[in-house]
Amino acid sequence: MITLLINDKKYKLDIAPEMPLLWAIRDVIGLTGTKFGCGIGACGACKVLVNATATYSCLTPVKDVVGKKITTIEGTTPNLQLLQEAWAAFNVPQCGYCQPGQLITATSLLNTINNPSDTDIDEAMSGNICRCGTYQRIKSAIQHTVELKNQTK
Amino acid sequence: MSTNNNISRRSFVKNISLASGGLILACNYSLFSNEMNTTNAVEFNPNLFVQLNTDGSLILIASRSEMGNGVRTSLTSVIADEMEADWNQVSVKQAVGDAKYGDQNTDGSRSILYLYETMRKMGAMTKAMLITAAAKTWQVPESECHAQNHFVIHTGGKKIGFGALAETAKTLEIPTNITYKNPKDFKYIGKSLKSIDVANYANGSAIFGIDKRLPNMKFAAIARCPVTFGTVQSFDKSAAMKIRGVLDVIEIPRIEKPFGPLGGIAVIATSTWAAFEGKKALAITWNYGKNETYDSEAYMVEITKNVHQPAKVEKEIGNVDQAFASANKIIESTFQLPHLAHAPMEVPNAVAWVQGDTCQVWAPTQDPQTAREEVTAYLATTSDKVTLNVTFLGGGFGRKSKPDYIVEAVILSKAIHAPVQVVWTREDDIKHGYYHTVSSQYMKASLDNQGRVTGWLHRFALPSIMSTFTPGIEFAQNWEIATASDIPYEIKNLKVEVGQAPAHVRIGWMRSVINIPHGFAVNVFADELAFAANKDPLEFRLDLIGSDRLEDTKDPIKYDTKRLKNVLKRAAKNANWHQPLPNGHAYGIAVQYSFYTYVASVVEVSMLNDKIKVHNIYTVIDCGTVINSDTVKAQLEGAAIFGMSLAFYGKITAKNGIIEQNSFSDYPLIRMNEIPKVHVDIVESTENPTGVGEPGVPVIAPAIVNAIFKLTGKRYYNLPLSDYNLV
């Protein structure tokens, strides 16, 4: 049995230890907000927070994250919530499919750097593909969230 | 106020009272003939629904698929506006695939074009009935009542909510006189409504096809022959069966239809991962078949040969040979573009549950009616037994118009008597697509001593989309020719020829379709001519378009050269075309009329260490009446990135019949660190609304190439630019 802590909830799963976290989350637990895009860590659609860091769940066997705190798009963290509000305010998504991964990556960025520069944003977000091409709005929404956080400090 | 009395009573097929106390309206009439989609036998007869509940909540049905096009919001907002509904009371329900809704095929950038007036009617008609209901309730003349923000108000000051009128309204006759709002009174149309689904996208609760779950549902992955239309000779499933979670391995045959599954070996499992792992463990011997000879490099040589010699003449105006003979200057160029894959972020997938002679499907599909027909045909049943539920689409771009992956799920569900979800791997998606065509284009033009174009020859060879429908077609067909033969240039001597190009993979339409190759060649060539004539590319192009006129194309909608010149001028103005740029920066320009819409882009590039950087893209669109300006803006922002991806990286190649690319690692797409600032400007217009999703794509690549020429003096005739180590 593998025990995972996802969004503050414990899941005991009878699965192979090598199963990628992505499929445990989607197919076994049934949280489908985390997406499959490529399975090789090239698109970022599958990213979840492991502790506070965005991680390619398609490349992460469940045995490697036992005992760690996993947050998916269905979870809540202060930065994720702020970003989700900005995503809505900037009407960021088009098809919406990659956006959970984008939001998780942006959350990880803000968890690490309080005041990211343009280059920081580009670097952090370049692992995530959006085929619809919403990058400009993603960037604006991140910058807006940073400004908002700085104002309320 | 405008009035339209043209609605026949017969055209209203339903006026059904709902048990829930609601009011359903449906209307059925045709706008345009459906000229492009050849497989869709459905007539263009929209039936659109409004459901008003007694508590005032309003359910509006979206009959078209949502794939980032914003259609669930735009179509329903038109109904709400004409109805004077309060948007906060609206929820949107996705229609299942059913001919009663009229054409639901969400491609060709035509959802708004086809449905705008119908949607207005649906709203206006509902409003009229609510006003009648209020007048009846109050025993006052209808002329003393008007609707405003979900209420009907009497001149005397009384008001009543829409919900409270539902019961009375449902007993009324459908009105014959429909009164429309004056466009200046629009509340939602032309404004910026946010996507009605934005919150669900951001919190992960939007259900895409791949997210559908059913009790006892199995997961399936399919190994398909690496060569298009190859077959299974033999296979060994023993290793696959040993993988934990693998339940079964089943051979499925190819169905020889345009949208038929390719066939192969399916692995059924308890999770997607187990299915993927099981698929990897299969040992299969394939019969590759005749497409094994397909080598895209050799093929390019072959089709290029076919455009370097006289080919099938499709159009000739004047006498091109004579113009060439008396030319002051002759320019000729050849353009080569590779196959492309759609690569939507959500791979093809579908859930099917066959129970007895009924079947339920949940799928991300652009064309639920065709999907339903294919499923019905496979099960040899009647369409009433097949329910085609449309989920959110994680991108479509034309790929999800083709329901091969849906039929796969149906085959497997029928075989194992359980609900099945088929999921393609990304490698499956890249290797077994309906590829955007590969092309070679030869262009030749003559200039007189004033630098004016006197003759123009456009000769191209590309495997036709129609080869997918009618195997054996080896020449471009009708609309694949029209973009070249109907170019909006005032040239006295013009010839369009089509060379032979047999297909060796499935050819499909991808966002902006034939406008990608034609838009590229024509825009780059026009720029080349401008430089040969020693003229400014913008001024040269405006001269080439020439006088203000409506072009006499075969299409019911004529294009207007004045509008074309306007977007060109406006893009140049927005970019300050005539002002000097910083050192090492240059502008390129391109313009394209597609899907009845006018788009021009000016692109600013620089080179650093021999690598291109795109800094700004100034796009201007004239798509007639705008329904949702933020959606238009978003589509054009996205189109710029889509266009950049194909310009920079887009390339699918085949060797020994096998597609060489696999995933985003070797079929790269533009990422955040490469994006320019995209500035979108929308022309205000009261003309009919026209396409938005696609027309922004084809101008980007040629504008980039033209800018690079301006900067470096080097002209790149082939894509992608990664082949030249420029990106």
Word description of this protein:
The complex is a heterodimer of chains A (153) and B (727). Chain A is α+β, with helices and mostly antiparallel strands. Chain A is 40% helix and 14% strand. Chain A folds into two domains: 2-71, Beta-grasp domain (Ubiquitin-like (UB roll)); 78-152, DNA polymerase, domain 1, CATH 1.10.150.120. Chain A has a five-stranded mixed sheet, sandwiched between helices. Chain A starts with a strand and ends with a helix. Chain B has 727 residues and is α+β, with helices and mostly antiparallel strands. Chain B folds into three domains: 2-197, Aldehyde oxidase/xanthine dehydrogenase, molybdopterin binding domain (Aldehyde Oxidoreductase, domain 4); 209-289 and 348-423, Aldehyde oxidase/xanthine dehydrogenase, molybdopterin binding domain (Aldehyde Oxidoreductase, domain 4, 2-Layer Sandwich), CATH 3.30.365.10; 296-340 and 434-724, Aldehyde oxidase/xanthine dehydrogenase, molybdopterin binding domain (Aldehyde Oxidoreductase, domain 4, 2-Layer Sandwich), CATH 3.30.365. Chain B has a seven-stranded mixed sheet, sandwiched between helices. Chain B has a five-stranded mixed sheet with strand order 2-3-4-5-6. In chain B, strand 28 and strand 29 form a beta hairpin. In chain B, helix 1 (71-83) runs parallel beside helix 2 (111-138) and helix 17 (629-648) crosses helix 18 (700-712). Chain B is globular. Chains A and B meet through helix 1, helix 2, helix 3, helix 4 and helix 5 of A and helix 4, helix 6 and helix 17 of B.
